[in-house]
Amino acid sequence: xxxxxxxxxxxxxxxxxxxxxxxxxxxxxxxxxxxxxxxxxxxxxxxxxxxxxxxxxxxxxxxxxxxxxxxxxxxxxxxxxxxxxxxxxxxxxxxxxxxxxxxxxxxxxxxxxxxxxxxxxxxxxxxxxxxxxxxxxxxxxxxxxxxxxxxxxxxxxxxxxxxxxxxxxxxxxxxxxxxxxxxxxxxxxxxxxxxxxxxxxxxxxxxxxxxxxxxxxxxxxxxxxxxxxxxxxxxxxxxxxxxxxxxxxxxxxxxx
Length: 256
Known about the structure:
The chain is an alpha/beta fold. It has helices at 5-8, 32-46, 80-90, 102-108, 110-118, 159-162, 168-173, 189-207, 222-225, 229-243; strands at 52-56, 71-74, 95-101, 124-129, 132-133, 139-140, 178-185, 212-218, 247-250.
C-alpha cells in the first residue's frame, strides 16, 4: 500500500479552533499575534471556547475580535476591566478576560485597573507591555523607559520632568484582590511555554473563583521602536527585562 504524506509526518502544531483564518494586521515581528495564539491554545485545550468572553479596548488589540473565535466585546479606551467586571457579574459562569496594552491599562485605565483588582473581580487581565503607544503614533507610554526615544520624547524620557516608568504589575500584586500575578514574554519558545502555563493556571483559578489573575507580557514594538524585529528583541532583552524582570510576582500557595 502507498503511504500518504500525512501518514508519515508527525503533527507538531495545529491552529486552535479558537483562532480565525483572518490575515493579521500586526506589524512584522510584533508579539501580539503570539500572545493571541497562546491564549487561544489554552482556551481550546481546556474546551472552554463557548464559555469564554474576551474584552478588547482601543489600541493595537482593538481588532482582537478578528482573530479570537470566542465571544468578544469592545470597550472604550482604558475601560476593558470595567466592562469585564460587568460581564462576569451578569454571567458568573463564563470565563472572562481583558486584553489590554500598556497605554490603555496603565494610563487612561489606571483607575479602572486598580479598583477592579482591589475588588478581586474574578477575571483574567492580560497586560501587553511594549513600552510605547504602538497604534497611535509611537508616543511615550507610562511604561516607557528612562532615556527611551519616542515621538513625544525625541531626546529620551526625562524622569525629572515626566516621572519614572510605572511598574504597574508590582503595584497590582500589593492589592488583596490579586490572586495570581506574573510577568512573561514571547520572544523564545521557552518563554512562550511559561506564558501558556500561566494562562492555564489563571483560567483554573477563575473556575475556582479565587479572584483577579493579572498576567503581564513584555513584548516589542519594532515599528514604534524604529528597529527590525531582531533588533527589537535584542533591545528588549537588554533594556526592558532588567527593569521589568520576568517571573512570578504573587503566587498562590497552590502553585508553590
